[in-house]
Amino acid sequence: MAWFRKDKKPLKATDRRDVPTDVFEKCEGCGEILYRERLAQNLNVCPDCGFHLRVTADRYLEILLDEGSFQEMDAHLQSADPLGFTDLKAYPDRVRAAEKKVGRNDAVVSGHGTLDGLPVCIAVMDFRFIGGSMGSVVGEKIARAARKALAERCPLIVVSASGGARMMEGIYSLMQMAKTSAVLARMHEEGIPYVSVLTDPTTGGVTASYAMLGDANLAEPGALIGFAGPRVIEETIKQELPKGFQRSEFLLRQGMVDQVVDRRELKDRIAVLLRHMLGAPAGGDGA
Amino acid sequence: MAAGPHLEFEKDIVELQEQIERLEGLARNKGLDVASELQDLQSKLEVLRRETYQNLRPIEQVQVARHPQRPYTLDYLDLVFSDFQELHGDRSYRDDEAIVGGWARLDGNTLMVIGHQKGRDMKENLRRNFGMPHPEGYRKALRLMRMAEKFGRPVVTFIDTPGAYPGLGAEERGQAEAIATNLREMARLRTPTVSVVIGEGGSGGALALGVTDRILMLEHSIYSVISPEGCAAILWRSAEHREKAAQALKLTSSNLLALGVADDIVAEPDGGAHADWDQTARQLQRSLAKHLSELIELDMDTLLRQRWAKYESMGAWLGEDGALDG
């Protein structure tokens, strides 16, 4: 082939600033190239601009619970395919692909452990699993964690990250909103504390059920939190949304969350709040 | 779907109706005796109606559920109840007219009736926001439910909404919180509650009136986590696939009964509720009376325990041994 006939490969955007992602990660907030290791030490918060990069469910368990205290529950629960749902892909194939990607059976990890010495039940969602969507398994695991909290009379913490209901489970996915809220109603009656942590993004049916029902609703900085997604709203009102709309700081101003809390302070903040709600004396260093 | 008052699959029914009218006109004008022909056509019409309405495809069910001549909440308040006194407002922001509610009597007994309200023309739809509530609508509903609890009266809700309104103000005023609070508070309301899906049960906006002791569905109503159009747009990348989505979502009353979500189906006349309001209203009245009389027999702790058990067992998952649970 003559040199002037040689096909040119098109230049891709990623070719230009190729970052070896196993060592470095680019901050989505300020564009700074960050050492992965240093970033991890900083709980995936950009040391330069404070942007909160998403982290996995397992990482939240490490961040929030005392080392070695976590006992997982109900890890074996798996999605059924109650409707025999097939769109461009069959639902069971989507679930299997997500299982492989995330290494978990569904979009929530639940169990119990201690937080600054306080026994707690906890459920953490993982957005990587079909967009953190809530189907029967998510609803059931949250409900079981809440029932355990009821039985042990210990606080419940749920860390949410979700695109909403899992429509491949049809009406059952909608009914998980009712299910989780019904258990929370019982906790409410029993006076058992529930702290909801809203992370990026928390939208749809999860926001419109347990994520908004905390005795304290805590949001990570800059998280997208809402019911309808921003694109749907823009299509409805035919105009661009104002900057910062549906972000944590906006929800704080609108009175929908109690505090916006930096991930690095989250554990201490929850401990202080829980001790207030439990009527327990202040912790070791004033916590 | 045709823009006119008739649905596409009703074309043959409409033609037959017109044929009957023509024949009747002819008989009047010319004094002809067409009684037997008329009778033939009438019975043909009945059979056609029954066959059509017993074999609706899911997307056709969706069209019937959204039919603009279907009775709405205020129509049932007129046909089934008496003494209706509407109560307005959430006491914090405004009166959301996409949800109506107030005291009414069923067979002489006072209850609180709350429901989504759609409009039939553009003017009324602007006022009712096409039956899509804002947060203050859910908050008004909750205010009325709590008042029913205070006075020891049962609550009946009518569900008929495309869904919560995806607008700026609705988000600003916290529609997620408003829906969530209704779900939790309905789960612990200390009075018997019955919801009836009368048309379109659209997602969270529907469920916000739907955490009740009994869930009834009119035969041709639908109840779904997302509209077939919305589902198709996301999963099939085009709203044109709504027919496939309607099929896949299993959103008809018989689907929901089989899935254990609906407790009972209220039969509609052949031709659908829009064809005969009075008969639909009579069926609804009977069904409401039956379920309410069963519920008021229960003491409050039993009622709540049953309600919690109902919602806490919903769903299907593979459990401990890979067997289907839920």
Tell me what the structure shows.
The complex is a heterodimer of chains A (287) and B (326). Chain A has 287 residues and is an alpha/beta fold. Chain A is built from ten helices and ten strands. Chain A folds into two domains: 34 residues, no CATH class; 225 residues, 2-enoyl-CoA Hydratase, Chain A, domain 1 (Alpha-Beta Complex), CATH 3.90.226.10. Helix content of chain A is 35%, strand content 17%. The N and C termini of chain A lie far apart (73 Å). Chain B folds into two domains: 47 residues; 252 residues, 2-enoyl-CoA Hydratase, Chain A, domain 1 (Alpha-Beta Complex). Chain B contains 14 helices and ten strands. In chain B, strands 1, 2, 3, 4, 5, 6, 7 and 8 form an eight-stranded mixed β-sheet that branches. In chain B, strand 9 and strand 10 form a beta hairpin. In chain B, helix 1 runs antiparallel to helix 2 and helix 6 runs parallel beside helix 8. The mean pLDDT of chain B is 94. Chains A and B meet through strand 4, helix 5, helix 6, helix 7 and helix 8 of A and helix 7, helix 8, helix 9, helix 10 and helix 11 of B.
Features:
heterodimer; A: 287 residues; alpha/beta; 2-enoyl-CoA Hydratase, Chain A, domain 1; 7-stranded mixed sheet; two-stranded antiparallel ribbon; 10 strands; 35% helix; globular; B: 326 residues; 2 domains; 8-stranded mixed sheet; 14 helices
- Find the CATH superfamily of the largest domain in chain B: 2-enoyl-CoA Hydratase, Chain A, domain 1
Report the β-strand fraction of chain B as a percent range.
15-25%
Strand content of chain A: 15-25%
- In sequence order, what are the helices and strands of chain A, one letter per element? HEEHHEEHEEHEHEHEHHEH
Number of domains of chain B: 2
Tell me the count of domains of chain A: 2
CATH class annotation of the largest domain in chain A: Alpha Beta
- Helical fraction of chain B equals 40-55%
> What kind of sheet is the major sheet of chain B?
8 strands, mixed
The CATH architecture of the largest domain in chain A can be named as Alpha-Beta Complex
